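Input/output pair, single chain:
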Amino acid sequence: MDDVMAAIPLIGRETPEILFTGGEPTLLDGRLVDLVRQSKSFLPETGLHILTNGRAFKDVRYAGQFADVQHHDLMFGIPIYSDQPERHDYIVQADGAFDETVRGVLNLKKRALRVEIRVVVHKQSYERLPQLARFIARNLTFVDQVVFMGLEMTGFTKANLDALWIDPLDYQAQLAEAVHYLADSRIHTSVYNHQLCVTDKSLWDYARQSISDWKNEYMPECNGCAVKHQCGGFFSSAKFRYSRGIHPVVAT
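Output:
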């Protein structure tokens, strides 16, 4: 943390955005607030995106500390994996996590802070994507955006790959229903970390090139693809396993 605080003044003021992730950044407690304040002081035009499980914001006073900084462009990316509390808690392996996360989102929005809901799509979450979309549209309609993310095979994911991996071809119906429901509900919605050739064509307008350039790759099957320039590509770790449907899209 000391190194990060020392690095902030050295970063170019033209930097458009910085992402802070962990681990769990809110375990830093007040020091995370100090980091946001430091960033505002030295990088007044740079956006901040903080990835967090959101549970610490069940204390509205903690959410208020970030609101009091009055950063011009601060967003919290918070995962919700299911509309069913027990399913979300199982995925994150923490009892009570769903309730604390939802309360955290409510408290952040109560203090007018921006929130992005992140849904990683995998074998344990894909079946109820439509129900999750309806839950968000009914109960969290005020969130700033919802992102459905392809699985990155790193960390604990690699160790539990058989329990998590599902070919994206096999969940397109659920993903499409969820995305279109949220879009129809006027909630800004995106699809990250997916390859266009295995993504339902009705979702192409929602697909983003979201993988950082330093870990973004393409497979040999992508050679000659007419839409490669707009495709999200693969995480470097995807070489362990990727969709059976990867193929070059032919221009029409």
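DSSP finds nine helices and eight strands in the chain. The two ends are 52 Å apart (CA to CA).
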